[in-house]
Amino acid sequence: MKHSLHLSNQEENSNRREEVDREQASLPLTMSYNARIRPLLDAVDKLRQLKVMNEGIQLPTIVVVGDQSSGKSSVLESLAGISLPRGQGICTRVPLIMKLQHQPSDETELSLEYLGKEIETDEVNVARAINDATEEIAGNAKGISNIPLTLIVKKNGVPDLTMVDLPGITRVPVQGQPENIYEQISNIIMEYIRPEESIILNVLSATVDFPTCESIRMSQRVDKTGERTLAVVTKSDKAPEGLREKVTADDVNIGLGYICVRNRIGDETYEEARIEEANWFNNHPLLCKIDKSMVGVPVLAQKLVQIQATLISKCLPEIVKKINDKLNSNAQELGSMPKHLSSITDAMTAFMQIVGSAKESLRKILVRGEFDEFPDETEMHGTARLAEMLNKYAEQLQNKRVEFESKENFLMDEIGVLQETKGIGLPNFLPRTAFLAILQRKVKEVSDAPIDFVSNVWDYIGKVVVSVLTHHSANYPQLQSSNKRAASNLIERMKEQSLYRVMELTEMEKLTDYTCNPDYLEEWNQFMAEQNTFMTLMNNHWASSKITIPGFGEIEVGHLRQYPNVVQQAFDMKMRITAYWNIVLRRLVDVTALHLQFSVHNLVNKEMESELVKEMMDSCGGGLERLLEEPPSVSNKRNRLKKSIKLLKESKDVLAKITNRISVDGAITSY
Fold first, then answer.
1. Percent of the chain with pLDDT over 90
2. Which of 577, 597, 587, 553 is nearest to 397 (CA)?
3. Residues 571 and 583: beta-carbon distance below 8 Å
4. Are 53 and 153 in contact (CB under 8 A)?
């Protein structure tokens, strides 16, 4: 009797548990605060539909990843309550954006959106419709594509969720798949899971060791701490042994926790599958020990909805900021683009504005020494670079002066010239022809330096002028070729003028010796103050053969004792030519510098404008009409910016509405 009573109680408890399981299975997967979540999700879905991510603005996204045959499709089917494509190999060959939306009516609405099309379907044909759409996107072979396919599920009882299901990871390509299938899948997955706004739903099979799963390795590469990763363990009924220990030990850093589920088997209805799942986790001797907050599709749905709502609320302020920043940036960029020109008057106005702006920039760079327009481009700091070139030129001339002075053959050039220019006449008179002969020889030896200097200066100025014109005509690329041609012609002409001027200058220095600079006499007198000491040493054959003369250093003079009749004249001539040569070198620098300053002034204030206008009006150049022909690159950029601004404004309006609602309803509970 007692035994019968005991059996009766057992049966009653078992029946009660089954009844509870059925009641739990009949409950919808939706939650009480879905009314607050739905507007958030609709806003993000609208942004996704507007393709705001093409503007570089990432959206909060639940990304579903898993190794091939990990049970991803079963999990998504359980959440959506519909059948997805099944089969061998990769079932998901394109990113599948699943938009689940609970609706009160019992009527189910299914539709697909891809390649600008919208296709309605039903629960019976949805798997085939997805396959057909996938083939249209990725081809009828077994390859994959990164073009998304959107599945919209409006059904009573489904959780309000938007997820992106990605192709299952496989390392070994099967027949018909490209050899680099693993790399292609990896690239798609990394693109979706890398943004900080993505939550990674990592689907793992209970039948494998979690650390060996490729999906775990990928998620750990972008989410080392696991704070963005939630794991779903499928096939719990196939490998219950040690499952509790695996999900509690957390050897792979799953920051958002584990949810264990049972896959739907065979022809089970979704309600039957949920009853069986609840029965397994309530009654199995091993699975019943797993905490109830970690088991079952309803718990998974609740967790995902909560995570998604919190993620959206958390990301919204930053999304709003990024959209505003991008909108302002694009509006500013569009405003800086050239006005579309419709008449010759418009074209002439635009052209003269370019010329005026370029002239002012060149005044700053080449005349006033301002470089605020090119602060980081030192090559465009014109006056500084010109000063460096001038200093280098002056130093080069001085170095040539030092090269000419031979301490071993001191006065020998002068003695040679004096001997060849001597004639019948009074002694101790310096023949002027001797002085000019030495002067002309010295001028000839440095005559290349001014030419090289002037050539280098105009080459540099040419680069600066072309850079400035290109910068100011950037909005009118059809002008740039004629502007460069005009600048090149002008620079070449002014370069030739300058070269003629410095060659003329060197010829003048050869022609005659003249200066009113008092430094000449002062320096000559200083040198001549050493003449008595020098001659005393020369006349004393027993004295040292070396003497130190200021400005020349230690000089060897022993070889000069064989020229007693001419050495004093040679010394005088040496000192005269040395004092005068310093004047010549300074004059070569000063006059060349003044000429270049004057030429640059004329270039900027007069010559350039007339040359540009002449080139523009030249019939061979195409005239102002070219300005009326907007290049494709400019029109494409204008259209792209207008399209982007329109999209961003729509996105801003979408977010403004939801932000106002959040401020009224309050924040979502965090996960």
1. 29
2. 587
3. no
4. no
Burial status of residue 645 (CB atoms within 10 A of its CB: 0-12, 13-18, 19 or more): middle
Is the Cβ–Cβ distance between 161 and 304 less than 8 Å?
Answer: yes
Q: Convert the pLDDT of each residue in 472-520 to its tens digit.
A: 888 777 788 888 989 999 999 999 999 999 999 999 998 888 999 999 9
One-letter amino acid for residue 486 of the chain = A
Specify whether the CB–CB gap between 148 and 167 falls below 8 A: no
Q: Are strands 229-234 and 198-205 parallel, antiparallel or unpaired?
A: parallel
Rounded alpha-carbon distances, angstroms, from residue 641 to 276, 335, 632: 55, 10, 14
pLDDT exceeds 50 at position 552:
yes
Contact 446, 397 (CB under 8 A): yes
Return the structure tokens found at 166: 């990605």
What is residue 121's DSSP assignment? E
- The Cα–Cα gap between 326 and 330 comes to 6
Asked if pLDDT for residue 124 goes beyond 70, the answer is: yes
H/E run at residue 97 = strand 96-102
According to DSSP, the β-strands at 96-102 and 149-155 are parallel
- The one-letter code for the residue type at 637 is K
For residue 423, report the phi and psi dihedrals to the nearest 5 degrees: -150, -175
Residue 660's alpha-carbon distances to 161, 314, 320, 657, 663, in angstroms, are 22, 15, 12, 5, 5
Q: DSSP letters of 80-93?
A: HTS-----SS-S--
Structure pTM? 0.59
Q: Categorize the per-residue pLDDT at 7 as very low, low, confident or very high, splitting at 50, 70 and 90.
A: very low
